[in-house]
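Action item from last week, closing it out:
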Amino acid sequence: MNEHNMKTTETAEPYRRKGRLKADTVLLAHGSGGKAMRDLIDDVFVAEFDNPAMGDMEDQARLGLSEMQALGDRLAFTTDSFVVDPLFFPGGDIGKLAIYGTVNDLAVGGAKPLYLTCSMIIEEGLEIDVLRRVVSSMRAAADEAGVSIVTGDTKVVQRGACDKLFINTAGVGVIPAGREIAARQVRPGDKLLVNGVLGDHGAAILNARGDMALTSPVMSDCKALNGLIETLVAAAPNTRSLRDATRGGLASAVNEVAASASVGVIMTEDDIPLRPEVRGFCEILGLDPLYLANEGTLIAFVAPEEADAALAAMRNHEAGREAAIIGEARSQQPGRVVMKSGFGGERIVDMLVGDQLPRIC
């Protein structure tokens, strides 16, 4: 091999066929491993997700350890799947949900999210334009959250084997040295905060399905929380525990922490932020807003002396404008969550037994 050929080999960029996809809908051939599948991947996924980690198009992403070690001393790793119905809803879609949900799962553990995977199970017959919308939304959400989608997989199944589109993700982040955010850190006296109103995502999905005809449609709270969490931790270094209140809502998230920390938790009903529209349709349908799903809402237990600073920091961030202190941990009744009503009475807030709204994320 002469010098010219050697130089060409070392610097050549991978050849990618872009703009070759002609079909209007996804076919079984697009999952066959052949040319049709390569056309789908190149034209839909690579065109949007292209980044240096995907550059060689190998069967794995190759990530620099030195870059991650500079950010912290431990890796955080999570996985999630998304089967929401409908695919598009007020305030979001399945693609945005997949990115933000994975980012938030990393961030509530104190990690700085860095890399995500994207695997899709696509039903034969899904419109290509719909797939493009979802993938474009994922790219925009990843850019906003400051993460890269670095590898993935595509499977196509016959009609009826899945409902349009299912997405699986995995995420990798780095936890800064000395940061310990976990339910076991919660102590009696710690204050319980939320970053905003509850139940918007569940209400948005319910309305999008046509089950309610709200004159003022509620938008999903779907958003990334990693920026808010960094702001919170900077203001309240003794933040004990964070949890995103997704399926099962606020009630399930608080119960999970109470059980893990062996503390009781008492919340004050009048302090819990709810939109009048959400409160109203919950009353009509007999739903409890404490169990409605959220996709941009977190709970935080912070040291009591830092609660005011934490609240102020959250309210100064776009993702926490309506933050509130809604309760505290206590030594009485370990593992039990209690709600104090406006009339002075108390009731037990237990874990959700079933599912108020299936396929919400």
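Closing note: The longest strand covers residues 112-123.
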